[in-house]
Amino acid sequence: MNLLSQSASSGHVDPEGEVPWCMQLVVRLDRAAPPGHTAVCEAGALAVVRLVSDERCEPGGSWSAPVARWLAGRIRKHARRAKGAAWDRAQELPGVTTSHADAQVRALVPTPLDAVPREIAKLQMQGLDLADHPAARPHAIDAEPNGPVVVSITPEPVLSTGKAAAAAGHAAQIAWMEMAGDRRAMWVASGLAVQVEHPALQRWRSLRSRAQVTVTDAGLTDVDPGTVTALARWA
Fold it and tell me: What is the predicted pLDDT for the residue at 221?
């Protein structure tokens, strides 16, 4: 998923003549007991925020240079699926794995698109579209003081699970980058909790005018350029 944000901290255009960089999100997919759509979105968002907030991303840390280069260009995320041995191999690469509800997602340290590890590059990206039990698919969540960051996913167009997870991850990441220091400390204390809602169209339109973060797709895949795919809010 290739994303831009209206936020100034979302990244810039890719440096001329350089291969774009991308963060890979690997979703554990067990066909016998697949995770829910919303759980994957929340686990993906949490994995992204835990990676970018990791001390290894700080100056001098082992992840500092690749993450800084990734942030210097257009921020890309690709969601892939893995099971069995493929999932185990993904755990051996630099990154952060989160478990949430019935979902597991690993966010990998970004790399150039022409240097994605072979074991990740061969994982399928298309067709990751999972169902939710109605009770696990909230349609309205209000941001509470010092509570979780709330990410809203667009009702139109309908996003696949892979695209929605990448959008949720991007929204949560920009929330981390733009949040005031004292509020961020409270978020860290809560475990960087993220809640994902799927608002109806009328609520979505209302939220767009008051969300602190708006994620807009660059249109390089299967949605039109300029499509707003996710919002993030906190109180």
Answer: 67
